[in-house]
Model the fold of this input.
Amino acid sequence: MDSVSSLLFQDTRLEDLHRMLLAAYGSPPERECWSPLRQLVYSMLSSRTKTEISHEVLYALEKQYVTWEQVRDAPVQDVLDVIAPVNFPEKKAPALQKALRRITRQNGGKLSLDFLHGHSEERIRRWLESFEGVGAKTSASVVNFSTIRGRALAVDSHHDRIAKRLHLVPRSVSPDETERRLLEMAPANWTPETLDEHHRLVKLHGQVRCTKNDFEKNCAICPLLRMCPTGKEIVAASNA
Done:
């Protein structure tokens, strides 16, 4: 396919989605980018846990231990007690400490991920995902949200659900595959900041309107109805 044909067949649905969400919700506040290590810790803790609880636990952990070295070296039960409000703390506490110890070993005795700056997104994510408890969403969060500010799209349960209801990706694919396909659709001129903004807008929409359960009542007034096959079917059925 030549360049002219490529332009003719360019998929603009992600751009359309972004524009509609911005019109509905406005721009999210500017993100305070954390160090890669702090973002990794937060992302490991936040899996399947509400954002506000995840933040509270992160702050409690930092208040209790002051340094990540102290978290690394503390008795696992003590760390588990601090992070107890998150989901699955019994798995996250040992996984977090293992990650901190491994980072220390592989970084010449220094507990930091600043050495990741300058490496390719693919290489960073492949390395991070070799850690216990770190999947694609966590590695994407570190790459995109931290001071690395690389090109990645964090796909959480809200993002995955909405992409499938909009038929942007097949319902059968994994969240990892959802991210891969959405990144292919994302315009080449979208910066890491735009990808971050897109993720947050989609996540917000999933929290307030296109929820996991009982979302049908919102379809008729949804700002995405024009491009949503799922919503159109629900509205048509209710009007029949």
